[in-house]
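R.M. (postdoc): so does anyone remember the format we settled on? I'll just put the structure tokens first.
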């Protein structure tokens, strides 16, 4: 008698092999079903979290788009119009064709940053999803841009409040607004620099929110396609956000302005692309 036969003879159940294999198969099937149910719940929970994260990022983008349209664009346009008018006025003074003093109406309204759900977005992505790569980088950049915009708006409001309580002449007000050199040789560019910062940081927020929205939807749809057939998932596909209206309004920042950031996240080649690349390298003459 072989060792295997002796082992089976000594340790097999006395009521036959049928019961032994039935029990083993039942235990395996039960463990498999429990594991499958657990994995399905985990995947569905992640897909739901990704869907919520996508909605939160779209909400942030829409909040900042509304801020840009209602406040930031008029603020920047007013500043640029006054800056150009002053430059033209100075040119005419030098040419002797303008003798009247320069008059302007500055936009010194306070700017309030609306509340944005970036805290909920961070918690949703970091704690309830496994997304990695460019999406996480976009999330970190988005949160940083929102914090920077909040600081810039706070600084503007403080300068505006100080201006309201100060007793300045028209020339001092002009020098402060445009950052001109004073008679004492001092240049204070805080106010014009602040306007530039608010404009750029608003665009940063919009761009990174848009990028995060696209990456979250792409990751969720890939996860759904990869696992859906096996677990018979009934989670709907996430549609891409429609930015056609803000693009038509000229509110969306240009991707060319963020080319250096995008360059750091080149897509990984597929297996077919790697195969073609290796095949082409073998055909190259040495």
């Amino acid at each position: 008698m072989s060792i295997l036969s002796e082992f089976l003879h000594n340790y097999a159940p006395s009521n036959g092999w049928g019961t032994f294999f039935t029990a083993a198969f039942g235990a395996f099937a039960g463990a498999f079903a429990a594991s499958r149910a657990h994995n399905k719940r985990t995947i569905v929970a992640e897909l739901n979290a990704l869907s919520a994260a996508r909605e939160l990022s779209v909400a942030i983008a829409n909040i900042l788009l509304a801020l840009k349209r209602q406040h930031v664009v008029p603020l920047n346009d007013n500043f640029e119009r006054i800056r150009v008018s002053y430059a033209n006025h100075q040119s005419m003074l030098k040419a002797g064709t303008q003798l009247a003093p320069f008059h302007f109406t500055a936009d010194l309204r306070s700017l309030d940053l609306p509340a944005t759900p970036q805290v909920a977005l961070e918690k949703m992505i970091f704690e309830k999803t496994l997304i990695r790569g460019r999406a996480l980088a976009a999330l970190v950049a988005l949160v940083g841009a929102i914090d920077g915009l909040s600081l810039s708006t706070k600084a503007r409001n403080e300068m505006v409040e100080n201006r309201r309580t100060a007793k300045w002449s028209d020339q001092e007000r002009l020098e402060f607004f445009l950052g001109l050199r004073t008679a004492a040789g001092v240049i204070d560019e805080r106010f014009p620099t602040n306007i530039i910062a608010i404009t750029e940081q608003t665009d940063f927020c919009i761009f990174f929110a848009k990028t995060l929205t696209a990456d979250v939807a792409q990751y969720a749809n890939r996860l759904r396609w990869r696992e859906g057939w096996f677990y018979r998932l009934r989670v709907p596909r996430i549609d891409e956000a429609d930015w056609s209206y803000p693009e038509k309004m000229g509110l969306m920042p240009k991707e060319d302005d963020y080319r250096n950031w995008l360059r750091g996240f080149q897509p990984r080649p597929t297996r077919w692309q790697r195969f073609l690349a290796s095949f082409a390298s073998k055909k190259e003459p040495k």
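R.M.: ...and that's the designed sequence above, right after the tokens. Also worth knowing: Residues 38-96+116-258 form one domain. The radius of gyration is 32 Å.
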